[in-house]
Design brief:
This protein has helices spanning 3-15, 53-66, 82-90, 102-110, 131-135, 169-179, 204-210, 227-241, 253-261, 275-282, 316-319, 323-336, 339-349, 356-364, 368-379, 394-406, 411-428, and strands spanning 41-46, 71-76, 97-101, 138-139, 142-143, 146-147, 154-158, 181-183, 186-192, 265-270, 287-290, 305-306, 309-313, 382-383. The protein has 434 residues and is α/β, with parallel strands linked by helices. Strands 2-1-3-13-6 form a five-stranded mixed sheet. Strands 8-9-10-7-11 form a five-stranded mixed sheet.
């Protein structure tokens, strides 16, 4: 990262209303004890990225310093699965605090495993947050999580290869073709990498909307089995099979992240959580962020899911927490969303703050890559649905899309199967509308 960018970001940490104090990061090994081990041990399951994790560690040090009788331990739960959490909750041994995505937590709240914060905290506790961040952690008018950031994906491009961001997909594909190089029949420099077989379904709703469809309808039913979804799926697969701008077999996000950081890819579609890595590798002046280009065939802009990572407090029957520990869980969750911690998260990883005042200050700095993400966020995005049935989308999407890429089924068969599997799960679990 260039010295200029570091200076700007440190200003964010130091200046905002005097509350962003720089924090030395104390390294500490994760604790392994369970939530029932002792009454003053607060257990956290967290899903922070490597660049976000130092800010979490620093927050733990601060919290323990001001709560001398409280110990915070944590377990690394990368994309915690509902089955892992539910099994622990049914045994009364769920973590006291869960940090993860709103869609994952939304299903747990619907099933009664997470605390209803609207009953536990005054309304004034929620007013400092951006409305979109708070809405992402709300169901049926009740708040179930404390938002820690706002995030989603945009197009990230290497300015040395693609000097000006394309504004439509015809231009994007042509720019990608212009810079793609091969050697021995293999792509050496890729015009772009999407990594459809590594997507897991998170980035796909952006393209689905760009081809004219919605993700879930207003009744809460999946809206995947249609021509627009098929067109989007085929469009993305064509990057490899027709356009020859993406190498085949990209099944891991790490693959395209590393190749982009090494300067071998023109364009990718990623979020602010990785931007610091790219800036450090390529230099601040060589990393651009812009909205995902308009789909030339439809005239519609892709609208990626924008939501938040949140802190969620387990209900006492799920965690087995004493009243005192449950109260400390609330305190810790709120502390994670304080200006100081959100400043650290922005400083270490580029996370966009969920607090309105902090967000406003970050926006006022006019940092180019931040502006690119905000352009996507403000002008071309959709709310991340926290419906419980969203948890039934990920596995069918991954399985069926892999089969489609392998050529064993068509795109139409894939989207039909994804939709039918989601509806079957909804019916089995009595999630309306059945």
């Amino acid at each position: 990262m260039s010295g200029a960018v570091i200076a700007i970001i440190v200003v964010v940490v130091v200046v905002v209303a005097g509350v962003f104090a720089y924090l030395d990061i104390t390294h500490k090994l994760p604790g392994q004890s369970s939530s029932g081990a002792k009454s003053n041990t607060l257990v956290v399951w967290q899903d922070f990225s490597p660049t976000e994790f130092p800010a979490f560690q620093s927050a733990v040090v601060q919290f323990e310093a001001t709560h001398p009788n409280q110990t915070v331990t944590w377990v690394n739960e990368t994309t915690p699965s509902p089955s892992n959490y539910v099994a622990a909750a049914l045994a009364g041994d769920a973590p006291d605090v869960l940090i993860g995505t709103s869609d994952f937590a939304g299903g747990l709240y619907y099933d009664g495993f997470l605390a209803n914060l609207s009953k536990l905290l005054p309304a004034s506790a929620f007013t400092p947050f951006l409305p979109v961040a708070l809405a992402d952690n709300t169901q049926s008018g009740t708040v179930f999580g404390i938002p820690l950031n706002v995030n989603g994906v945009a197009m990230i491009y290497n300015k040395e290869l693609v000097p000006v961001a394309p504004t439509n997909t015809d231009q994007m594909i042509q720019d990608a073709k212009n810079i793609t190089t091969t050697s021995g029949g293999k792509i050496v420099t890729a015009g772009l990498i999407y990594g459809l077989d590594s997507d897991g379904g998170y980035r796909f709703p952006a393209w689905q909307s760009g081809f004219g469809s919605t993700f879930f309808n207003t009744s809460g039913l999946p809206n995947l089995n249609n021509t627009a979804t098929v067109d989007a799926l085929e469009f993305l697969n064509n990057f490899t099979t027709v356009d020859a701008i993406e190498p085949p077999g990209v099944t891991s996000e790490t693959t395209y992240e590393d190749q982009f950081a090494e300067g071998h890819v023109g364009m990718i579609f990623d979020g602010p959580w990785d931007i610091d890595t790219y800036v450090a590798a390529l230099g601040a002046t060589n990393v651009g962020v812009a909205p995902i280009p308009m789909v030339s065939q439809t005239g519609d802009w892709p609208e990626p899911l924008w939501g938040s990572i949140g802190a969620y407090v387990s209900a006492r029957n799920a965690s087995g927490a004493s009243p005192a520990l449950f109260n400390e869980s609330l305190n810790f969750s709120r502390f994670l969303a304080s200006p100081a911690v959100e400043g650290e998260l922005f400083n270490s990883s580029g996370d966009i703050p969920s607090l309105a005042n902090t967000f406003g200050y970050v926006e006022s700095l006019k940092i180019p890559f931040v502006q690119g993400f905000l352009d996507q966020f403000f002008n071309h995005s959709q709310a991340f649905p926290n419906l419980p049935q969203i948890s039934y989308y990920w596995t069918p999407f991954g399985d069926e899309v892999s089969d489609y890429i392998a050529g064993s089924i068509t795109a139409a068969q894939a989207v039909s199967s994804i939709q039918s599997q989601i509806i079957a799960e909804m019916q089995q679990n009595h999630i309306p509308p059945e």
